[in-house]
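Example with several molecule types.
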Amino acid sequence: MAESITVDARGLSCPQPVVETKKAIERSACSEIYVLVDTMTSVMNVTRYAKSQGWTAQYDKMPEGGFKITLRK
Amino acid sequence: MFQALNRALMSRKGPILTGIAVGILAPLLTFWGNPGNMGICVACFTRDIAGALGLHRGAVVQYIRPELAGFILGSFISSLIYREYKPRTGSSPIVRFFLGFFAMIGALVFLGCPWRAYIRLSAGDLNAIPGILGLTIGVAIGIAFLWRGFSLGRNYPAKKPLGYIMPLAAITLIAFVLLRPSFGPEGSSAIFFSEKGPGSMAAPVALSLAAGLLIGWLAQRSRFCTVGALRDLIMFKDFHLFNGIIAFVIAAFVTNLLLGQFKLGFEGQPIAHTNVLWNALGMVLSGLAFTLAGGCPGRQFIMSGEGDGDAAVFILGMLFGAATAHNFSLASSGTGPGAFGPAATIIGIMFCLSVGFLMREKI
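Resulting structure tokens for the full complex:
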């Protein structure tokens, strides 16, 4: 099994980035999930949700624009 | 000081601070001259602007509301300063146009957007209760679609100037209200300003604009959203945005009480009717349309200021919906629903259900 999965939620309206993150958390057995988003609003929403589920979250700016959020259990 | 304020707005306190500001300013704007329980109503004000531009002939609801221009500009300036100005578009604009169209039809059957529903509640207008229940049901239906994979698709980064269009439109509106230009013989051509009725009631332009700019700024930083609040609470048990609504209602209640604007009851409330069924169903339609579009009308204005071209199209749909509501006797009045309001509400709900069922995307 892959050690990490990536959810590309760039360009999706609220609350779809969080919905996709929730699905990834529930369906995968990975301990590391990357979520790509393109607004700070989505960074905050995904981070808040992940933390409420007991994951840690940190984000980095991507060179091509947008953000990569790293979630770890 | 600005940095500390910005940190607070970006934190859990953000929606609460914004809610308090809106809750104080909205009743104050009524005190300063805006219509009753309509210190700020995003739907009503869009409707008034449609009237002022001559898109409908409702003679009592025509005024260029500076608050909404302020929303766009406040958000635009804030997003530029904090590097969140991000032109984007391409997520089913035509569907969003008609979601805005029908959200407005529903709001004008209830007589208010979600912002006004909460303001009406805080001022003792009990007709707001079926409206808020309807709003919650509409949001819940939208959530069922979201869980099933509903999506209007991705937006994509756009060229910088795309995001300048709405701020320029806002500046044009401010010029119209300040200069009051006439484009033809008096009374027969735009710009129209109501001489009686709600459209004739307005706070001084400077106060309206300042309130709009401030709220636009605060809401851009804190992501304040009256529909997202219910949505996140139901979907994720997340109180982040909902706390803002609680703060909003409490602040508005206290301010209304202090200003002598609180009146408990169903009858004789300003710009409201007592038809429970259509107060509720109008807001079911609005709540569903706003949820499918990703945010309440205020939030759509804020996002349009950040450069979101799809939110801008949603707003134009609201403008067209407002014009249609008054041209086709869909809008309610103090006596009850308009002749064709209920039929249009049913059509709108069917449209939104179709969008919800048909627009799905595998991510």
